[in-house]
Amino acid sequence: MKMVKGSCNCNAVQFEISLPITDIYVCHCSICRKASGGNGVSVAVVNNQHFAWLTGTDKIKTWHKPNHDWVCSFCTQCGSNLPGKNDEQRMYVPVGLIANDDLAGAKVVHHMWVSSKACWHEIGDEGQQHDGFIG
Length: 135
Ligand SMILES: [Zn+2]
Ligand SMILES: [Zn+2]
Description:
The chain is mostly beta strands. It has a single domain, classed as Metal Binding Protein, Guanine Nucleotide Exchange Factor, Chain A, CATH 2.170.150.70. Helices cover about 5% and strands about 40% of the residues. The strands form 3 sheets. The protein has a 6-stranded mixed β-sheet with strand order 9-10-4-3-11-12. The chain has a 3-stranded antiparallel β-sheet with strand order 1-2-5, with no helix packed on it. A 3-stranded antiparallel β-sheet has the order 6-7-8, with no helix packed on it. The longest helix has 7 residues. The chain binds zinc ion (ZN) (2 copies). The site of one zinc ion has 9 residues, from loops.
């Protein structure tokens, strides 16, 4: 099948996924809002065996929020959010890194931390809404 490709804004970091993306999770928590500068972060979760870095792993920096389990990865050159470890078996992948052509058929299925979402943001899709985190 056609590989799903993703990259950061400066193209230094590139990766591919060997499976179509279907389900998108949006996290509305205050930490993700600061990280994105917007209304949250939208990610897909893929098994490790379907994910591969192509270039730029030397440009990846990971930041752990002190006293918290929140971790993010970003490109040290352009600052784009990057994929990271979701758990031992899976990666989370910010879907904004993937071109629309590779996301046909994908849709938001879950909204997390809706209880702390931005006051100005109205959720307008069919995704299920959760007050907290869902695994
Ligand atoms: Zn970059
Ligand atoms: Zn979050």
